[in-house]
Amino acid sequence: SYPYPPVKVVGKKIHMPAEVVARFRETLSRQFRSDWDDITARAFCPSRGSELLLIHDPRDRYLDDDDVPRILAHWPGAQLHLAVGVGHENLIRDDECVTALLEFLRD
Predict the structure, then answer these.
(1) Which of 35, 60, 64, 90 measures 20 to 30 Å from 7, CA to CA?
(2) pLDDT, tens digit, for every residue of 37-95?
């Protein structure tokens, strides 16, 4: 299993130059003996028979912009609930997000 590698997000947060981010990705690729796309794709692969509700604020500062479509593409049957303006840290406190989660768990 591969970890979720939010390298681009970490790079932005600490103002890491793009060249350093690229070298870090290369280092991780060598460490896992795999190319970068395979590493990120495998991080999103579902466990056999598991379901996913992805609750996401498009303005989330923790996920890369392309992560949501990648997760959905690699996780057949995944459901997406958009929580516009809620923020990453407040998802669990938002009434609509909690309702979506409870409905997902009931189904």
Answers:
(1) 90
(2) 777 777 767 666 688 899 999 888 777 667 888 888 888 888 999 999 998 888 889 99
The answer to whether residues 7 and 66 touch, using CB atoms and an 8 Å cutoff, is: no
- pTM for the whole thing? 0.67
CA distance 81 to 34: 31
Q: What does the chain look like in DSSP terms, one character per residue?
A: ------HHHHHHHTT--HHHHHHHHHHHHHHHTS-HHHHHHHHTPPPTT---EEEE-TT-SSS-TTHHHHHHHHSTT-EEEE-TTT-STTGGG-HHHHHHHHHHHH-
Q: How many CB atoms lie within 10 A of CB 68?
A: 17
Q: In the structure encoding, which two tokens stand for residue 23, read together?
A: 């070298």
Question: Residue 64 — φ and ψ, nearest 5°?
Answer: -65, 150
Q: What is the predicted pLDDT for the residue at 1?
A: 43
Residue 90, amino acid: N
